Protein 1
Amino acid sequence: MSDNSTTTGADAIDVAIAQGIDFDGTPIDPKKLDLYSSVMALEGNRQRSGVTNTMRSRIVRIGAKHIAKDVLNQKLLDAGFAPLKDKDIAYFYNK
């Protein structure tokens, strides 16, 4: 599973977890898979607060890995989202 086509993209992790095999080809410990599954089941039952809130959270969480703080902040504003919050900056940019 180590070629680039299977280790990139939004669902690559989910596919690997479903197969129980890490990107390097090693099996994922069943205890880890069980814990992951139980936590994801809890998350699956959680009431959601709104789609746009979740969209913004994902944009910030993922965007901070790839986009400079000022650029991401402007993109959020341009799209009509709230700007980066102090807690976003502290967590994602001040590491």
Protein 2
Amino acid sequence: MQKILPKALLVQDGALSEQQWQTLEALAEAVIPSISLGSSSTPTTHQAVSAVDLEHSKRLVNETSSPGKAEIQLEDAFFAESAASSPAFKDAVQRFIAYSADSDTKAGLVFLLNALATRVGSAALTGRTTPVTQLPLKDRQAILAEWQYAYIPFYRGLYRSFTQLACIYWIRTSPTLGKLLTYPYTPINHSFGPGFPFNFLQMPPSTAKDDMQTITADVVIIGSGCTGAVAASVLAAAGLSVIVADKSYYWPPEYLPMTELGASQNLFHNGGITQVDGGLFSVISGSCWGGGGSVNWSASLQLQSAVRQEWARLSGLPHFTSHSFQADLDAVCERMGVSTSAIEHNATNKILLEGARRLGMAAKTVPQNTGGEAHQCGYCTLGCGSCGKKGPTETWLPDAAKAGARFIEGFTCSHVNFAPATPTCPKRATSVEGTWLSRGSDSIPNTVGTYARRVRLQANKAVILAAGALQTPVLLKRSGLTNPHIGSHLKLHPVNVLGAIMPERTSPWDGPILTSVVSELENLDGRHHGVKLEATTMLPGWFLPLFPWRDALDFKTWCGRMGHAVGYISLARDSGEGKVYEDPKDEGRTRLAYNVNRKDGRHIARGLEALARITWGMGAREVRVSSPGVPALVRGQWSAEEEEEDEEEEETRRLEEWIAQWIEPLVRNGMHSRDAQYASAHQMGSARMGSRARDSAVDGEGRVWGTEGLFVVDTSVFPAASGVNPMITGMAVARGIARGMVKREVGDVGRARL
């Protein structure tokens, strides 16, 4: 039986005041207002639309919901609903601001909301001396439109920030959208898997302010995700005493999948989204027991030959083209049962494969880490309650536990301690320190009854960092390391998104998420930089907010048609790079700086063009991209009496004109149109591996330059972007580093156990 997730405590110090909330609510209600006929609307609170426009929107929604009497009533309620009509909306937005917004974003938002509540501030920001809370709805919407098309980027940023915030949290808290879409909040035919009975170390409460709890092991691993789990399994199997510690918590199968809102708050870093500086790039990374391997989409692609050769050349490490590296790739795939044999493509993946085939594009099925069995769950972004996905919590961490590894959840590592260097040895990592936060009195994290303890984890042989490419560099810098390559060379696999409405119902949240890939455009520069075209997660609260808000009726209509939608990403193997650094005003918070370069932007736009051709050729009724300023491509209305050849010719012309007018400029300009937006779920390269300290952060054995006993095993060490989902590559790298440690620390006895 599915367990309901209790609501975590809200730290009021980080939330908005009531006046600030009223101002934000007034803008959110302008983005997602109650929509009704002009004759029956209240101008201050409702958006008035004509009967023609409202009936047109309802007809489009009708076509994708097959309404009976009950559904028509739902339709009316859906259009009448506003963003803040549900109390859950306020709670969700307040939590985002309190926990997820960085210091600059939070301070900027508070400043704006305070200013908009005054006559002087309103005049400066809106050109009106009346505060927004006192303006009728149409005037608030006019302000949003003025901001959207403003010449000054600051005002366009206001439009983007307020519309995105309102859209994301309305979709995730709407009481009617899911019902209208017939979107089940747990997968159809879902059954809970057995899970593994993890036993986590517990610390007793202490009244002493500086009372430090010390726990000792041979090896301390920070991070329980894909790479830390593999390293723990290898090292524990060799007879070493291992502790795996993670800042997040384990959620057993009966809590999974969570709701979209619950998952963003409990399974992902920073509430689900880390904004790159500037706000045009959203980065998603897992933060739960098992890390990204607990919330990814099962795609299990090995690193391609050309990229392996590039890595070997860039890093000066022939290991990446060696048989031993291939053996590591194969070993991690074998343990998780990676295979294509039991795949049953859902509608989204079928359309991608068939559409590519009709155009002669190279495409293939993507292997899945599902133990060679069918896995029809489209909800794995929210946690895999069936345990069918054989990620870290189903494989490597149980293996490590059975070999004697110990586990700590809720431990936030602040820094690594070192023994001083000697004339014959660099400084040596001896321990890590941090704060452990217990579960609450109801055994749920972040609820009533939690308490904190300072903890030192003593490492007799080695400290391993597997906190991910966003956290590991910050932890290294907090520990006093100054190598300039730490935090640099961040790769993100930037994506842009295309969505299409198909004539048939797709129920896109059903079935496996990512089982197909179009590789036709993966080498657009002769150096194996290009894009892969893949399906994306099709959960309403993750997919729909990716598309720009143009006006309220248009956005609601788009959302109401999702039952017939498909969605794809144009994912670049990036040649550009960025950096990771700690928020100077908020210790422990990660900040990112990254600008998509022109070449990568051109490649992404080429991918969008290909996806438009694929979906249009498969009969799409409407196509949208997540780039602002590009209008939807809408198929014409054709009667049964009209010639099929005439229809095909006219619709081909319509597609080509749309591409020529809207997509080709993006290709030419490298997506450097005004305010182009991107997303990323892959982070790599921010502590890259190499043969020389002047070019890299860690050596070929994963050891941090200038230290002994400190290793990095996560995707931070990638010499360049992988071009494929980094899970398998990261696991293989971690296995190789761990095998090397066994060889040095244990010798032949330990290797014989592997």
Protein 3
Amino acid sequence: MRYAYFLLILSALPFLISCDADYKQAARGANSEILVVMDTTQWNSATYNALQETFGNTILTMPRPQPRFDLRFTGIRTNRDFDNIKRHKNVIIVATIDEETIVGQLMRGILSDDIKDRIRSGQNFAFPLRDRWYRDQWVLFLSDNSDEELASRIINAEQRLVSSLEQVELQRWTSEVYRRGDQPEVSDRLWENYGWSMRVQHDYNIGADTVGFVSMRRYLPDNDRWIWISWIDNVRRVDQIDEQWINARRDSLLKRHIRGSREDSYVMTDYRRPIQTRTTTINNKFTWETQGIWRMQGDAMAGPFINYTMYDESLERLYLVEYAQFSPRFPQRDFLYQFKSMIRTFRSDSTFDIDSYPDFDPFTQVLAD
């Protein structure tokens, strides 16, 4: 009876598949939230655990760890359930290909015969779609022949699967960050004076503004955020740069420029907590992304940081761009995601004429040789 009732839903699917309206309503739901559609009988399965370990993996580089994404699991019982599911921004629909559940029926009703054959033959198991039912929507279908096979493939493809959603989320966060505008006059001045720029959110204030180091801050009593940018010219090789070098360089700059209210207090890396470094590419620049926790030497303060060390080979210039936050009362994950979108607006001028040089120190000397 339960399955027969659901045929009402499936009968509408040909229309959903063929309809390609020019205008769709915007999907709803919070950024960083995923609605996972999975039959309730499968909530103790290996696939359930695999989704928690990938999309729901814990971010340890914050004072209060949070999941990568907030997962909300739901089953389907009625047409209204399905209508509500279709409206969400981020949706994962999960079932084995021959699963005799409502979600399994839904999966087979939506997927083409060719795709179902590819799943059964083991060729593919993941199918991401954009704007499936609503605008600004990301939908992922996951299916395989068995629970164990599906779980294993999800774990093995973690980076690819998560990246599919992260790219969509970065676009959303960019719209959110600059929803109230930016400061083009600040960006233009940085471009003219130093040969680089980024979009500066509307309420950041410039602090230090010198050759080699610029800082900006968005201060609220319970949510203090700051960004600093340092750069070194005439860098001809970067083979010696690794996590140790990056953090030593960061600590040197932090001690010099990011000071506390007490005379002997300054920000430094908290090496007692996890630090994670990975390599990536941002706007065609080879980049090291480092995440961890800072602490205030000489005071009881701490918070998350995310640093991007980027090499512009055409300019022979190395950039360090860092975001940090002190917000003991607020969750911090989404603010880190906001900065990940902001750093994608960073640009450098390949025609910039270098007529001055940052202050020498041991770190600069090593790179300038």
